[in-house]
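Researcher: Checking consistency across runs. Here is ferredoxin--NADP(+) reductase again:
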Amino acid sequence: MNAEKFTRQPITAIHPLTANLFSFRTERDAAFRFQAGQFARLGVQKADGSLVWRAYSMVSAPHDEFLEFFSIVVPNGEFTGELSRLRLGDHLLIDKQAFGFLTLNRFADGEDLWLLATGTGLAPFLSILQDFEVWQRFNRIVLVYSVREAAELAYQPMIADLARRDYLAEYASKLRYIPIITREHHSGTLHQRIPVLLKSGELEQAAGFALSAEQSRLMLCGNPKMVEDCRAVLKERGMRLALTRKPGQIAVENYW
């Protein structure tokens, strides 16, 4: 990649969640612009001097002065192995352009919005939920977040705090949060995979209302198998991918 296409930004915060999950912040170049739900291309330099690039959705909102990301450490991973060794003050390379189509402009209409995430796929939905547009456009918002173990439930304080933000307080009643833990049993959570809960109707029961092709819009981000299986279930209910020239009910992120 040509050096003119990226900036070098220092890491300003690192927050470990588990042995394999952490979030981090960098400074934000004044010229960097993105829509909530988009991702950045991040680069690290290996010991041999070569560069490795990966796509990471922004957790931070478009109006924040920093960039925040949520990462898993892949064992022996070429990128995350290098990333996990970085410390405060070290620099990341960030492409000057934002990418991705997991944004609200994928949908021209809709009454309720379902955000279905596994693992670090939560990141773009946090950016969307911190932006004002989603609260104005949709009457009901359902955030579904699935992890294997309770310790992996990230950003719980941020999710709980959304209702207390001054600019969102009057809209707080629109949000329904449904956490899922698939390998442990905890009260207040569901325990099966998202596609299974979709097919059985249990997810709609937890949300308190039904999905419909006419009113519901869905965003999927996370494990590719989850995305594939959810799309299959939703297809049976008459829902299809939203394309530029062909309106639909589903938007997915494909950088995995």
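Researcher: Does this match what you'd expect to see?
Model: One thing to look at in this run: The chain has two domains: 3-95, 104-252.
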